[in-house]
Amino acid sequence: MLKKIMGAAAVAALGATLIGAPAQANDAGVCSKAWSTYKACAASAQWEDNNDSFYLYDNEADGAGVRVLWSKNGVGQTPLHHNGGNGTYSRFQFSSPKGTIMQFQVCIEKNNVTPVETCSGKIVGTAG
Description:
By secondary structure, the protein is mostly beta strands. It has one helix at residues 11-18, and strands at 3-8, 24-25, 28-31, 43-48, 53-58, 65-72, 75-76, 80-82, 88-93, 101-109, 123-126. It has a single domain, classed as Immunoglobulin-like (Sandwich).
């Protein structure tokens, strides 16, 4: 079951989690890439294993939103979207058995278009 919860983001608190995030861990976070007029980390996403949730953050007032492409145990899932505006986030919660592999990447999305140049590398998290 998927739940979506929206609220105001504290981007400063997120920065410590995303910077230097390991390639694989129970918790994992990643930033979008700079491209054209978009700044690095204009969009970010985090997987938290203690509550089986993805958090999608909009970190810039650029008129764009956040898209997360992800898979669960290697099976592609419906992309996640957040278009709440600068300084906001969405939480997507899943019920996943312990050890489920969550692979994901974050991209910028504007008008249902995702420039692949903004997409982060893929990162892996594990359900706890």
